[in-house]
Amino acid sequence: MIFLSFFKTLVGKEIAVELKNDVVFTGTLHSVDQYLNVKLLNVQVINPDKYPQLVALQNCFIRGSVVRYIQIPPEHVDTELLEDAARRENAPASTKK
Amino acid sequence: MASTIKEWKDKVVFVLTADGRIIVGQLVGHDQVQNLIMNDAHERVYSADEGVEKVPLGLYVIRGDNLCLIGEYDESKFSDDQTAPAPIPPIQQQIF
């Protein structure tokens, strides 16, 4: 669940989501679930001249299975916290609290 | 959270399918794997030289697997004489 927890820390931040068909959306992360389905607010498509079909979109729900990348602003990532969480996740069961 | 789709129930929504088609219609039902039931749906077919062609589909069920994106749209930016240089590419699905 480490990725879910991680993405939950990014709620309210501006992210870019690249789909498996190379379309990229930017928007404010509203919510994320266990399948990494994401909901974005105030969505804008990158390259609107190429995809005028998608410029009318405002808020959208993107299915996790079609996402290739999620780009996040580095200033919103707490690397130390993430390292700690990864260590805890991979720790042998006996040492887990 | 499938609950994020729930707020759009009974509203007219924009759906992008995995094969790159755009379907607009009233969302009347959905489930936790994003299977959708849409009423009074129509497909918006874009082409490079003509405007948007609306293909009426009526009551339409979309299986969750084929859904790429669902959302609200701004009617004012949705003109019928829009043209698109290229269709939205499909999402290749792994075939086993």
UniProtKB/TrEMBL annotation, chain A:
Transmembrane segments: none annotated. Its main location: nucleus. InterPro entries: LSM_dom_sf (IPR010920), Sm (IPR047575), Sm_dom_euk/arc (IPR001163), U6_snRNA_Lsm2 (IPR016654). Keywords: mRNA processing, mRNA splicing, Nucleus, Ribonucleoprotein, RNA-binding, Spliceosome. It holds the Pfam family LSM. One of its GO terms (molecular function) is RNA binding. It is found in: Nucleus. The keyword Ribonucleoprotein applies. Residues 2-76 form the Sm domain. The keyword Transmembrane does not apply. One of its GO terms (cellular component) is U4/U6 x U5 tri-snRNP complex. GO terms for biological process: mRNA splicing, via spliceosome. Gene3D superfamilies: 2.30.30.100. SUPFAM superfamilies: Sm-like ribonucleoproteins (SSF50182). Belongs to the snRNP Sm proteins family. Binds specifically to the 3'-terminal U-tract of U6 snRNA. This is U6 snRNA-associated Sm-like protein LSm2. It comes from Seminavis robusta.
TrEMBL record, chain B:
GO terms for biological process: mRNA splicing, via spliceosome. Keywords: mRNA processing, mRNA splicing, Nucleus, Ribonucleoprotein, RNA-binding, Spliceosome. One of its GO terms (cellular component) is precatalytic spliceosome. It is found in: Nucleus. Pfam families: LSM. The keyword Ribonucleoprotein applies. Residues 1-76 form the Sm domain. Its main location: nucleus. LSm subunits form a heteromer with a doughnut shape. Plays role in pre-mRNA splicing as component of the U4/U6-U5 tri-snRNP complex that is involved in spliceosome assembly, and as component of the precatalytic spliceosome (spliceosome B complex). The heptameric LSM2-8 complex binds specifically to the 3'-terminal U-tract of U6 snRNA. PANTHER family: LSM1, U6 SNRNA-ASSOCIATED SM-LIKE PROTEIN LSM8. This is U6 snRNA-associated Sm-like protein LSm8. It comes from Seminavis robusta.
